[in-house]
Amino acid sequence: MSSPVHVEWDENVGVITIDRPDQLNALTTEVNNLIFDHLTQLEEVGVTAIILETTGDRAFVAGADLKEIHGMPDREFEAYQKNARKTNDYIREHPALVVAAVDGLAYGGGCELALVSDVVVADESAEFAVPEVKLGLVPGGGATQRLPDVVGPKKAKEMLTTGKPISATEAKECGFVTRLVETGSANEAAQDLATEVTKNAPLAVQEAKRLVNSSRNTPMETGLSYEQEVTFTLYNTEDTQEGIDAFINDREPSFEGR
Protein backbone atom coordinates (compact mmCIF):
# COMPACT_ATOMS: atom_id res chain seq x y z
CA MET A 1 0.00 0.00 0.00
CA SER A 2 1.47 3.33 -1.05
CA SER A 3 2.19 6.03 1.51
CA PRO A 4 -0.33 8.91 1.77
CA VAL A 5 2.55 11.40 2.07
CA HIS A 6 5.72 11.50 -0.04
CA VAL A 7 8.94 13.47 0.29
CA GLU A 8 11.76 14.28 -2.11
CA TRP A 9 14.52 16.84 -2.21
CA ASP A 10 17.48 18.14 -4.09
CA GLU A 11 20.35 20.13 -2.64
CA ASN A 12 18.26 23.13 -1.61
CA VAL A 13 14.51 22.42 -1.99
CA GLY A 14 12.37 19.75 -0.36
CA VAL A 15 8.87 18.78 -1.49
CA ILE A 16 6.28 17.17 0.79
CA THR A 17 3.25 15.84 -1.09
CA ILE A 18 0.00 14.73 0.52
CA ASP A 19 -1.38 12.10 -1.84
CA ARG A 20 -4.99 11.25 -0.92
CA PRO A 21 -6.94 12.78 -3.82
CA ASP A 22 -9.91 10.44 -3.45
CA GLN A 23 -10.30 11.65 0.16
CA LEU A 24 -9.67 15.28 -0.82
CA ASN A 25 -6.31 14.96 0.96
CA ALA A 26 -8.07 14.94 4.32
CA LEU A 27 -5.80 14.82 7.36
CA THR A 28 -5.50 11.71 9.50
CA THR A 29 -3.21 10.85 12.39
CA GLU A 30 -0.97 8.99 9.95
CA VAL A 31 -0.81 11.94 7.56
CA ASN A 32 0.08 14.39 10.32
CA ASN A 33 2.74 12.02 11.65
CA LEU A 34 4.26 11.58 8.20
CA ILE A 35 4.34 15.33 7.56
CA PHE A 36 6.14 15.79 10.88
CA ASP A 37 8.61 13.00 10.10
CA HIS A 38 9.37 14.39 6.65
CA LEU A 39 9.88 17.87 8.07
CA THR A 40 12.40 16.37 10.49
CA GLN A 41 14.12 14.56 7.64
CA LEU A 42 14.36 17.76 5.58
CA GLU A 43 15.76 19.68 8.55
CA GLU A 44 18.48 17.05 8.87
CA VAL A 45 19.23 17.31 5.15
CA GLY A 46 19.44 21.09 5.48
CA VAL A 47 17.23 22.32 2.64
CA THR A 48 16.61 26.07 2.41
CA ALA A 49 12.98 25.86 1.24
CA ILE A 50 10.17 23.31 1.46
CA ILE A 51 7.11 23.10 -0.79
CA LEU A 52 3.95 21.65 0.75
CA GLU A 53 1.71 20.39 -2.04
CA THR A 54 -1.07 17.88 -2.65
CA THR A 55 -2.43 15.76 -5.48
CA GLY A 56 -5.73 16.00 -7.34
CA ASP A 57 -7.48 19.13 -8.58
CA ARG A 58 -10.40 19.39 -6.15
CA ALA A 59 -8.73 20.13 -2.85
CA PHE A 60 -5.46 21.19 -1.29
CA VAL A 61 -6.62 19.70 2.02
CA ALA A 62 -10.34 19.55 2.79
CA GLY A 63 -9.80 19.33 6.55
CA ALA A 64 -9.72 16.48 9.03
CA ASP A 65 -10.84 13.03 7.96
CA LEU A 66 -14.14 12.95 9.83
CA LYS A 67 -14.42 9.19 9.36
CA GLU A 68 -11.38 8.81 11.61
CA ILE A 69 -12.50 11.15 14.38
CA HIS A 70 -16.18 10.17 14.37
CA GLY A 71 -16.90 8.38 17.63
CA MET A 72 -13.36 8.78 18.98
CA PRO A 73 -13.06 8.50 22.76
CA ASP A 74 -12.25 11.83 24.40
CA ARG A 75 -8.60 11.02 25.04
CA GLU A 76 -8.03 9.89 21.46
CA PHE A 77 -9.61 13.08 20.14
CA GLU A 78 -7.41 15.17 22.43
CA ALA A 79 -4.36 13.27 21.19
CA TYR A 80 -5.43 13.83 17.58
CA GLN A 81 -5.75 17.59 18.10
CA LYS A 82 -2.44 17.85 19.96
CA ASN A 83 -0.77 15.89 17.20
CA ALA A 84 -2.09 18.30 14.56
CA ARG A 85 -0.92 21.26 16.60
CA LYS A 86 2.55 19.74 16.96
CA THR A 87 2.86 19.41 13.18
CA ASN A 88 1.59 22.94 12.56
CA ASP A 89 3.94 24.40 15.16
CA TYR A 90 6.85 22.61 13.52
CA ILE A 91 6.01 24.08 10.12
CA ARG A 92 6.05 27.57 11.61
CA GLU A 93 9.32 27.04 13.49
CA HIS A 94 11.10 24.96 10.85
CA PRO A 95 14.40 26.57 9.77
CA ALA A 96 13.47 26.24 6.09
CA LEU A 97 11.02 28.59 4.38
CA VAL A 98 7.80 26.60 3.88
CA VAL A 99 5.77 27.39 0.76
CA ALA A 100 2.20 26.08 0.53
CA ALA A 101 0.98 25.41 -3.01
CA VAL A 102 -2.79 25.67 -2.72
CA ASP A 103 -5.35 24.68 -5.32
CA GLY A 104 -8.98 23.86 -4.65
CA LEU A 105 -10.35 23.63 -1.12
CA ALA A 106 -8.23 24.57 1.88
CA TYR A 107 -10.75 23.93 4.65
CA GLY A 108 -10.27 23.38 8.38
CA GLY A 109 -6.92 21.72 8.93
CA GLY A 110 -6.00 22.52 5.33
CA CYS A 111 -6.57 26.20 5.95
CA GLU A 112 -4.42 25.90 9.07
CA LEU A 113 -1.61 24.23 7.12
CA ALA A 114 -1.62 27.18 4.73
CA LEU A 115 -1.84 29.57 7.67
CA VAL A 116 1.32 28.26 9.34
CA SER A 117 3.27 28.15 6.07
CA ASP A 118 5.60 31.08 5.51
CA VAL A 119 4.36 31.82 2.01
CA VAL A 120 1.11 30.80 0.30
CA VAL A 121 0.98 30.41 -3.47
CA ALA A 122 -2.63 29.83 -4.51
CA ASP A 123 -4.29 29.38 -7.85
CA GLU A 124 -7.61 30.97 -8.76
CA SER A 125 -9.57 27.84 -7.83
CA ALA A 126 -8.48 28.00 -4.17
CA GLU A 127 -10.93 28.59 -1.34
CA PHE A 128 -10.09 29.03 2.33
CA ALA A 129 -12.44 28.26 5.21
CA VAL A 130 -12.50 27.34 8.88
CA PRO A 131 -15.93 25.65 9.06
CA GLU A 132 -15.54 23.88 12.40
CA VAL A 133 -18.51 25.80 13.90
CA LYS A 134 -20.73 23.84 11.51
CA LEU A 135 -19.62 20.71 13.40
CA GLY A 136 -20.08 22.25 16.84
CA LEU A 137 -16.35 22.84 17.24
CA VAL A 138 -13.71 25.53 16.94
CA PRO A 139 -10.38 24.94 15.14
CA GLY A 140 -7.86 22.94 17.13
CA GLY A 141 -4.78 23.54 15.01
CA GLY A 142 -4.21 27.21 15.72
CA ALA A 143 -6.60 29.16 13.49
CA THR A 144 -8.28 31.14 16.29
CA GLN A 145 -4.86 32.44 17.37
CA ARG A 146 -3.07 32.83 14.03
CA LEU A 147 -5.80 33.90 11.60
CA PRO A 148 -6.33 37.32 13.24
CA ASP A 149 -2.65 38.15 12.71
CA VAL A 150 -3.03 37.49 9.00
CA VAL A 151 -6.47 38.80 8.01
CA GLY A 152 -7.25 41.02 11.01
CA PRO A 153 -9.46 40.23 14.02
CA LYS A 154 -12.76 41.29 12.46
CA LYS A 155 -12.32 39.22 9.29
CA ALA A 156 -11.07 36.31 11.39
CA LYS A 157 -14.19 36.45 13.56
CA GLU A 158 -16.40 36.50 10.47
CA MET A 159 -14.66 33.45 9.00
CA LEU A 160 -14.60 31.57 12.31
CA THR A 161 -18.25 32.20 13.20
CA THR A 162 -19.86 31.77 9.78
CA GLY A 163 -17.65 28.97 8.50
CA LYS A 164 -18.05 30.40 5.01
CA PRO A 165 -15.12 30.21 2.56
CA ILE A 166 -13.29 33.13 1.03
CA SER A 167 -11.98 33.04 -2.52
CA ALA A 168 -8.34 33.08 -3.51
CA THR A 169 -8.76 36.67 -4.68
CA GLU A 170 -10.19 37.77 -1.34
CA ALA A 171 -7.47 35.82 0.49
CA LYS A 172 -4.88 37.71 -1.55
CA GLU A 173 -6.52 41.02 -0.64
CA CYS A 174 -6.49 40.01 3.05
CA GLY A 175 -2.80 39.17 2.99
CA PHE A 176 -3.36 35.43 3.44
CA VAL A 177 -2.20 34.54 -0.07
CA THR A 178 1.20 35.78 -1.14
CA ARG A 179 1.03 35.00 -4.85
CA LEU A 180 -2.12 34.39 -6.88
CA VAL A 181 -1.65 32.41 -10.09
CA GLU A 182 -3.72 30.85 -12.85
CA THR A 183 -5.69 27.70 -12.10
CA GLY A 184 -3.53 24.60 -12.30
CA SER A 185 -0.21 26.39 -11.88
CA ALA A 186 0.19 26.60 -8.08
CA ASN A 187 2.77 23.82 -7.81
CA GLU A 188 4.89 25.24 -10.61
CA ALA A 189 4.69 28.75 -9.18
CA ALA A 190 5.64 27.44 -5.73
CA GLN A 191 8.67 25.72 -7.24
CA ASP A 192 9.67 28.97 -8.96
CA LEU A 193 9.39 30.85 -5.68
CA ALA A 194 11.38 28.24 -3.78
CA THR A 195 14.10 28.37 -6.43
CA GLU A 196 14.17 32.15 -6.13
CA VAL A 197 14.65 31.89 -2.37
CA THR A 198 17.44 29.33 -2.64
CA LYS A 199 19.56 31.68 -4.73
CA ASN A 200 20.17 33.59 -1.49
CA ALA A 201 22.37 32.83 1.50
CA PRO A 202 20.77 29.97 3.50
CA LEU A 203 21.70 31.32 6.93
CA ALA A 204 20.25 34.73 6.07
CA VAL A 205 17.01 33.13 4.85
CA GLN A 206 16.70 31.17 8.10
CA GLU A 207 17.33 34.23 10.24
CA ALA A 208 14.90 36.39 8.27
CA LYS A 209 12.13 33.86 8.92
CA ARG A 210 13.07 33.55 12.59
CA LEU A 211 13.17 37.31 13.14
CA VAL A 212 9.74 37.83 11.60
CA ASN A 213 8.28 34.96 13.65
CA SER A 214 9.69 36.35 16.89
CA SER A 215 8.47 39.89 16.15
CA ARG A 216 4.86 38.95 17.05
CA ASN A 217 5.67 38.64 20.76
CA THR A 218 8.68 40.94 21.01
CA PRO A 219 8.62 44.65 21.90
CA MET A 220 9.82 46.80 19.00
CA GLU A 221 12.99 48.00 20.73
CA THR A 222 13.95 44.45 21.70
CA GLY A 223 13.25 43.18 18.20
CA LEU A 224 15.35 45.91 16.60
CA SER A 225 18.26 45.09 18.90
CA TYR A 226 17.92 41.38 18.13
CA GLU A 227 17.85 42.16 14.40
CA GLN A 228 21.16 44.02 14.70
CA GLU A 229 22.73 41.22 16.72
CA VAL A 230 21.81 38.76 13.97
CA THR A 231 23.21 41.13 11.35
CA PHE A 232 26.50 41.39 13.24
CA THR A 233 26.69 37.59 13.50
CA LEU A 234 25.94 37.07 9.82
CA TYR A 235 28.56 39.62 8.83
CA ASN A 236 31.24 37.24 10.12
CA THR A 237 30.03 34.32 7.98
CA GLU A 238 31.73 33.16 4.81
CA ASP A 239 28.47 33.61 2.90
CA THR A 240 28.27 37.33 3.67
CA GLN A 241 31.83 37.90 2.51
CA GLU A 242 31.05 35.87 -0.62
CA GLY A 243 27.88 37.87 -1.27
CA ILE A 244 29.61 41.23 -0.94
CA ASP A 245 32.55 40.14 -3.09
CA ALA A 246 30.19 38.77 -5.77
CA PHE A 247 28.23 42.03 -5.85
CA ILE A 248 31.38 44.17 -6.13
CA ASN A 249 32.77 41.98 -8.91
CA ASP A 250 29.48 41.68 -10.79
CA ARG A 251 29.20 37.88 -10.57
CA GLU A 252 26.75 35.34 -9.16
CA PRO A 253 27.50 34.37 -5.55
CA SER A 254 28.15 30.79 -4.49
CA PHE A 255 26.72 30.34 -1.00
CA GLU A 256 27.68 27.38 1.19
CA GLY A 257 25.59 27.97 4.30
CA ARG A 258 28.49 28.91 6.54
Automatic annotation (TrEMBL):
One of its GO terms (molecular function) is isomerase activity. One of its GO terms (biological process) is fatty acid beta-oxidation. SUPFAM superfamilies: ClpP/crotonase. Gene3D superfamilies: 2-enoyl-CoA Hydratase, Chain A, domain 1 (3.90.226.10), Lyase 2-enoyl-coa Hydratase, Chain A, domain 2 (1.10.12.10). It comes from the Archaea. Keywords: Isomerase, Lyase, Plasmid. Belongs to the enoyl-CoA hydratase/isomerase family. This is Enoyl-CoA hydratase/isomerase family protein. It comes from Halobellus limi.
